[in-house]
Amino acid sequence: DDMNEYxxxxxxxxxxxxxxxxxKRHLKISFDEWNIWTVDAPRTEPLWKKAPHLLEDVYTFxxxxxxxxxxxxxxxxxxxxxxxxxxxxxxxxxxIMTQKGGGTFKQASFYPFRYLAGNASGATVRTxxxxxxxxxxxxxxxxxxxxxxxxxxxxxxxxxxxxxSQETREVELELRSFGDLKAKEYVRMVNxxxxxxxxxxxxxxxxxxxxxxxxxxxxxxxxxxxxxxxxSFVRFEY
Length: 238
Known about the structure:
The chain is α+β, with helices and mostly antiparallel strands. The protein has one domain (15-38, 51-237): Immunoglobulin-like (Sandwich), CATH 2.60.40.1180. 19% of the residues lie in helices and 30% in strands. It has helices spanning 2-20, 61-76, 110-119; strands spanning 29-30, 81-83, 96-98, 104-106, 123-125, 133-136, 139-142, 144-151, 156-163, 169-174, 182-190, 209-210, 216-217, 221-226, 230-237. Strands 5-8-9-15-11-12 form a six-stranded antiparallel β-sheet, covered by helices on one side. A three-stranded antiparallel β-sheet has the order 10-14-13, with no helix packed on it. It has a two-stranded parallel ribbon with strand order 1-2. A hairpin with a 4-residue loop joins strand 8 and strand 9 (156-163). Helix 2 (61-76) runs parallel beside helix 3 (110-119). The mean pLDDT is 94. This is Alpha-N-arabinofuranosidase. GO terms for molecular function: alpha-L-arabinofuranosidase activity. Homohexamer; trimer of dimers.
């Protein structure tokens, strides 16, 4: 929610200046080089070392939960954020890691990016949530963080849900006005160890699991059980 407030402040400032100078331009925001970044090692290297490994951080399942929430925030502000470039893509603070000789693995943060970048197209749907909140070092945040998109051309509705609670949360989705929805994909990322990571020797420690498709009542009502500290993605068609 801190990121959401930051974007909201920029949006309000742009609107204020536009009104003050009576401009007809509609300025948009480029949220450039965003990413999670965990500094877990000293940043010292010998001088003049040839092609050193720099900033090749390994990200945890906890980081992936934060990453998914950041993507939800960008989707929910797509009316003003028109460009959101992830920094970086390979090795350096990246979702994909490689090594000399051909080894590779996907970081925990790769999967929310894959599912949302590959499916959450069309328009973002404004949501109304009664989620409770919790306090953190940045202020107040919602326990359930969500984003919903609707692609009219593909006749798809996608829902991304982060549960930041230590307890299972029962969620009721009311997806009206889309027609007769049917679930086509349901995946979840959850791990009892928030510090779990992937690596060259264990590339699949943290990855999504496919769940049984949820029932859709009356074409629009969906009940989901969100595991503690988890990210869920559901894709519907109509």
